[in-house]
Amino acid sequence: MSQEQTDLRGYIPPNLPLAQTLETKAVLKKAISANVALARLNGATARIPNQAVLINSLVLQEAKDSSEIENIITTHDDLYRSTIDPTNLSQSVKEVRYYGEALRKGFKLVTQNKLLLIKDIIQIQSLLEKNDAGIRKQGGTCLKNDLTDEVIFTPPQLENDIRNALANLEQYINDSELDDIDPLIKMAIIHHQFETIHPFYDGNGRTGRIINILYLVLNELLDLPILYLSRYITTHKTEYYRLLQRVRIDQAWEEWILFMLDGIEQTANQTIQLVHKIDKLMDETAKLIQEKAPKLYSKDLLEVLFIHPYTKIEFTENTLGVSRKTASTYLNKLADLGVLKPIKMGTSKYFINKRFYHLLSGK
Ligand SMILES: Nc1ncnc2c1ncn2[C@@H]1O[C@H](COP(=O)(O)OP(=O)(O)O)[C@@H](O)[C@H]1O
Ligand SMILES: [Mg+2]
Are residues 125 and 82 in the same domain? Predict the structure, then answer.
């Protein structure tokens, strides 16, 4: 094929599994410590009785961080406030909320079907972008340097090439016998391959990061969808882009895989710390209510405060199945005790679980 024809088609990635040996000594060593960290994370999460506590807070965090990589910037306060009043939202807050929806949908599909198919990935991206454009049909998509506008990389341009590469990726994701290397190494390869195929006009980065977590869940390496690499990627963004590119130029797979495995290990360790802190805070809050307002205390009430860090009377009413009046008494009493901070919003009021909010927002 002539150079011109290649340029027209863009870069066509090699089919998976890759021919070269990826399990070098360094990679195997790192894979072990990443797996150990993940197993410890699963152990830690088992201590929090209500899964919604961790899932809600970490999904929101990830939606925020992953969108931030794409320069969609929001604050924790804006995001939590949108759970209280989902009207008049800014474009960024909407986009982050779509990300959360897409992630949850993906988690549901994978746990139900025990498969992660291309049609699911298309559905995830469509929820994320709120459009049905689907797989790219027209050429012209390329990755450019933000500052210089110089083209860094041209993904496959023809729909047929994109579909073939995706069919191969689908098989690689779902047929564990195709390549018997460690699933964490496979996750790194899958992420790279997906970003290289770049099948959509937009949303490839975010969809690719959702695929990472779904792949871990699919392989039963995670009990809950709570290991998110976006914060790690944001802090190492230049490295992330550089290494994505170096694989294509120099076949630098080892460096890429080590980078991703290190991300898994570091993130798992940070998440374990966070889970411990949440566990401790829930304990302390329970004790305080039991001591100061024993008649009010129930496990369900405690959990409501942690499932919705920003809460309002309706949430408590619905979750606990109590009257509006009772729910209002509960929340106001908790505000008197200093557990919640009441905030006026027009004619209504909402309440913030102060200490939990500070823990989650790092403030
Ligand atoms: N050189 C590169 N090679 C492959 N993928 C890249 C490269 N540079 C960036 N990417 C991927 O492309 C993503 C951005 O693509 P885009 O479709 O705009 O996704 P999103 O809308 O979620 O940002 C990045 O997050 C990264 O994962
Ligand atoms: Mg984009």
Answer: yes
**Is pLDDT at 183 greater than 80 in this prediction?**
yes
Secondary structure letter of residue 15 according to DSSP: P
Mean pLDDT of the 212-240 span: 95
Q: How far is ligand 1, taken at its centre, from the CA of residue 341, in Å?
A: 40
Residue 213 near residue 232 (C-beta atoms within 8 A):
no
Question: Which residue range forms the structural domain that includes residue 258?
Answer: 24-274
Residue 3 belongs to some domain of the structure: no
Q: What tokens appear for 248 in the block?
A: 């294509």
**Residues 142 and 155: beta-carbon distance below 8 Å:** yes
CA-wise closest residue to 300 among 314, 313, 286, 280: 286
The reply to whether 251 and 165 lie within a common domain is yes
SS3 call for 295: coil
Q: What is the CATH number of the domain that holds 331?
A: 1.10.10.10
Task: Give me the number of domains the chain comprises.
Answer: 2
The protein residue whose alpha carbon is closest to atom 25 in ligand 1 is 205
Residue 118 in contact with ligand 1 by CB distance below 6 A: no
Give the model's pLDDT for residue 130: 97
> Which pLDDT score is estimated for 245?
96
Q: Which of 226, 232, 182, 230 is nearest to 42 (CA)?
A: 226
Q: How confident is the model at residue 347 (pLDDT cuts 50, 70, 90)?
A: confident
| Ligand 1 lined by 11 (C-beta under 6 Å) | no
pTM value > 0.90: yes
Q: Average of pLDDT values for 271-297?
A: 97
Q: Which of 241, 246, 249, 253 is the pocket-test mutation for ligand 1 (most atoms within 8 Å of CB)? A: 241
Q: Which of 225, 243, 274 is the last residue of a domain?
A: 274
Q: Which amino acid is at 134?
A: G
